[in-house]
# Entry
Amino acid sequence: MGNDQEGIRVSRRGFIKTTALASMAATLPVTSLAGQSTVSGSKPSPVGTKRNLLFLSDVPENYEGLIKSIESIKEYQILVTPMKVDFQKPKDILKSIQYKNADILFIRLPGVGFSSRHIAEGMGTLDIPVILLPLNLDLIMWETDLAASFRTKCTNALLANSKEHAIELIKIVAAPRPLEGQRALIFGKPFRSTSVPAPNLDEDYVYKRTGVRIEHRPIEELKELIKDVDEGAARKEMERWKREAVEIVEPADQAILDSSRLYVLLRSIVDEEGLSAISIDCLSYTFSFDRILPTPCLAFTRLRDEGVCATCEADVCMMLSSMLLREISHRPSYLCNVSSVNTQTSTTVLRHCVAPTRIFGADAPPQSYNLRDYHGMGGVVPEIEYPIGLDVTMGGFSKDLKDFVLWPGRIQQGIDDRATPSFKNAPPEMQKMRKYCSVRAEVKIKDVHRFLQSIVGIHHIMVAGSYTKEIYDAMLRMNVNVIAPPDLIVPEV
# Structure
């Protein structure tokens, strides 16, 4: 026996009883047939704490101790079903497991070496996570090859490096996906943002990858709905913004009132529909002097401060990124343009016109802010400063939601170039236009060259604090690859 099998005693009768009971499990599909295309993670996370784990081995009776350890996990009620299988016949394995109500698949390959690629080929894409624990931790090649082969099928295959590590991985994959069951609403053309279109995505794909239900509605609906906003509530919101601002630089009361109307409307939609996130394809109208709606920057700031992921420009991937970081950190995030990267100083400059004031959470004191207009074109936006020396986490999902860029950083002192005009020798109607957004953060980072090649798009997400382990665990659960610098310690300024 291998080094995991000492002390294990299971009677033949007991084993037959266990496997017979296993055959009575409820019918639920676990796999798609080999060769079929599917999206990993398509099975919704179970409700409650009960989880069904199939334990596949050629000699499962030898692993009673390990099975008891799995069943002893306190956080979840893990029901382990041992199954004796012949790994040389993967299609038979597929037939055996595809009608079991399984949430997790646990595999222990035989102790003798053999090609394992055919197992993944024969079993196809599995929509539940697979954990592999090598029998011999000094010779893990077959398990690593099988895990890699499963991943070519988009199966979430995780390799354990010890019994204790296997238990930790089971806890991670037993947890619901971080965003499971959350709802988001975008006003704009479906996956056709003016600035950040995502034609490769659709509602079904997003749900299968993340657990989030996204709905799109025409932006014109807001134009009609805003007419019926309670005037008293909007004025109360306007007065709050004015009272709490350090300075109102350009905006007139009417601009603040219009933005407050939009906040009242969006807040009512979020509350009535139980939304976790909301967005507008704002760049479809904000750079026009004849806007169909107020600029949403002020409304989005308030919503973020209140715990709602109100994200800019109908950017689906960054909406999901913001939701994830909000779920992990319990803090609102800064959706920003990666404006520039300086490889000489290992810094990046992040800009946008929306940032939360309560960067440390809804119950924390707000940062001080000024009220500015939108690029010198009317409207109103908050102007805040991120504290020098603050450690931050930056990143976001890739365009296909298969990768997540995770980059630690620290806010450092930067130049204030926000008054830079948009054009030299501009005509009178454009002389007040400003080139840069009203919120600017300069961030010190490590491995700057790799960061430059890992930027996920126009936008990134930044949140105050460091959440490396939490993000790694969440990505393991979601079957998402993490792209990060080798050294995840926040750099000194």
Q: What stands out?
A: DSSP finds 14 helices and 19 strands in the chain. The first helix runs from residue 12 to 22. The two ends are 55 Å apart (CA to CA).
